[in-house]
Amino acid sequence: MSKISVTGSKGVMPTVIETIHELNLVHLSDYDGSWEGFDNGNPIEGADDASEKLVTVRALESTLGLSEAEASGQGTLEENWEQRLEEVRTRINELDDQRTEVREELRQVDERIDRVAPFAELGIDLDLLSGYDTVDVLVGEGSEAEVHAALEAAEDVRAYETFTSGDVVAIVAAPTGEIDPVADAGDTDADNVIDDALVGIEFTRYGVPDTEQSPSAYVSELEDRKYELESRIDEIDDELERIEREEGSFLLQLEAELTIEVQRAEAPLQFATSDRAFIAEGWVPSDELERLKTALRNAVGDSLEIEELERASYDRHGRTHTDDIHQGTQDAKEDDEASADANEDDNQQQQKAVTDGGSAVTMGDEPPTIQDNPSAAKPFEMLVQAVNRPKYNELDPTIFLFLTFPLFFGFMISDVGYGLLYVLIGFYMYKGFDSPGISSLGGVAIWAGAFTILFGILFGEFFGLHELGYMIFGEGGAPMGDKGLSPATADFVYAWLIVAVALGVMHLNIAWILDFIENIQHGHGLWGAITHSGSWLLMLNGIWIWVFTPQAAGVKPDFIFTAFDGQPFDFGFSGFGLMDVFTVPADIAYLGGFEVTIPFLMVIAGLALLAIGDPVELAEFAMPFAHVVSYARMTAVLLAKGGMAFVVNLLTFGAYETTEGGRPFAAPWNEIPEGSVEMFPGLFHMGDGAVAIAAFAFGVVVLILGHILVLLLGITSAGLQGIRLEYVEFFGKFYEGGGKNYEPFGHDRTRSED
């Protein structure tokens, strides 16, 4: 990525802007106004008008619900587009205003219906609920028993009567004294004896609607009005849809044109300008630099100076600069001399700004990032950006995420049935949505589902059933055996725990090796890389090699030596040898002879190097052990998901124990051998007659909903746990992020992936 500077007179600035915009190559730098004699430029004439029209167009698109996907190709705008835009704006705004007014009236009608509904339920004419001088009347919603109790206990109530329908209660009460002539019986805020009596109980008061009609007639009239208003809204919506069909392409095309015009017009805001000259800087891919220079030369001739100020290369701790970058080409110098008489003072100011501090770099910004990954790994860029976009001078970890996350996810679910569904869901998301984020998630789901299928085949599992393994691999079953969900196969759990730990060691080795390489090439040098990253590598491998050695075997679980040496796999691995170097004599070690082994020396060397490089990090000396143990969560998810699928199948199919001691599911395609003992009948085999039919139907529901639940929980558990291992344990060793996206001038930022 090259940093360039373009310097010229203000007269050629519009042409330069148009040329750069059409090329769509230069990521412009923002001038901060710090150079003496130079200010940020002003928008080109017409920018305000174009911006105002762009806002109008986008507002109309929002009203119509238009999206970019509905654009029907590009074309040339007609000459009278402004008049057409005004006509469309007037029609749409009038309809939108009408729709707003109708919706407001509809809301008021709904409120009136809600207010009068309780009175219609009572069936009492509204004129009977107000206007009395000797009694109080109140209508509301509450418990009739509580209302009766409260009125009975009220000393100010001489007599009362209630009328109820459902929870709606109408109360007529005569006070012991005289009625307050000011109080209105229909006003729930009035000071009356019923209100006083009901203090302390839950009772919702309703105001009596102001109408002479019966409640049912009033509700009927309001319902008719509601229907009219809803019909009017439908008519307006239909008219707006017609406008969308007729004018949608025009508006989208106009938005694209106005966006370009506004970008061009506002570009000088990023430039440094004086009275007669301007300086623009930006980043361009180095292999496109000559194309940019040629295009600018063809556009404005010799009245422009183009310099390559800096060429950024991959560097974690600061950009490197190539030695052959110089202050402009000979052609540029000749151009400068040709125009010196016209703007000598301005050129002196420019040269002062450009050479400030002896550096060619003027606007001090970082180069933008272009994530360039293989197409298969592209969807995983979204997962990286969820943490932060990589800096230009930083390794993009997308490819490593692509290689490890589906592996972890597939191992944790490992079921062909679920994997197929993940692939189908991912394909739908990838192809069926315009959103780059959803589409990328679909791509991730496809890869995760593919690895789930792979591990499902190795486990011989299809929606928790193991018949697939025998169908593919014969009598021996699946090569990975069992997940260890039954007491007879519990040894498999220990094997998968070791596999998870091994994956963790591998993953963290990759992370610290990447950190080691970055430090060697860009920043700390070889010694710095050894003390910073090499120390952790030594401790990581030293600790975990020692765990699998016989030293202190009495405090280590037996399964680490037996899981791959016969129980359950007979691979002949019973741990590493002692790898002792020498033995410390008993009189020196005090506690008896102590064998100094290679893993022990690796850990000691790692601690020593860490103390030399950064003593503060010694506080995290246990990290290589703790972070690897964190990968055991993969085994936990493997067992949890397998166990849930097992339970769903058990409830549905039931299970039986054969004479050989096996416990298969009693699935419809299984022939139950004679002499087998039923352990649980299952919903598919439960009862007789109508009970059997009902149980079978319920079993189908349990089977479908149960596996859907396992499928969804697989996303939330395996997905989140896998991402956590990537973000926390892996990224934390070498990745910082914080880069900015490469957005060349000419790129429509409103439609960018961000």
Automatic annotation (TrEMBL):
GO molecular function, one term: ATPase binding
Name of the protein described by the UniProt record: A-type ATP synthase subunit I
Cellular component GO terms, alphabetical: proton-transporting V-type ATPase, V0 domain; vacuolar proton-transporting V-type ATPase complex
The entry's keywords: Coiled coil, Ion transport, Membrane, Transmembrane, Transmembrane helix, Transport
Taxonomic path: Archaea, Methanobacteriati, Methanobacteriota, Stenosarchaea group, Halobacteria
Protein's GO biological process: vacuolar acidification
Entries under Pfam families matching the protein: V_ATPase_I (PF01496)
Residue ranges crossing the lipid bilayer per the database entry: 399-425, 437-459, 493-514, 526-547, 588-613, 634-656, 689-715
Main location group: membrane
Function according to Swiss-Prot or TrEMBL: Component of the A-type ATP synthase that produces ATP from ADP in the presence of a proton gradient across the membrane.
Keyword Iron: no
Coiled coil spans: 78-112, 219-246
Signal peptide limits: none
Comp. bias regions, Basic and acidic residues: 313-326
Organism: Natrialba hulunbeirensis JCM 10989
Recorded family membership: Belongs to the V-ATPase 116 kDa subunit family.
Acidic residues: compositionally biased ranges: 333-347
Region (Disordered): 313-375
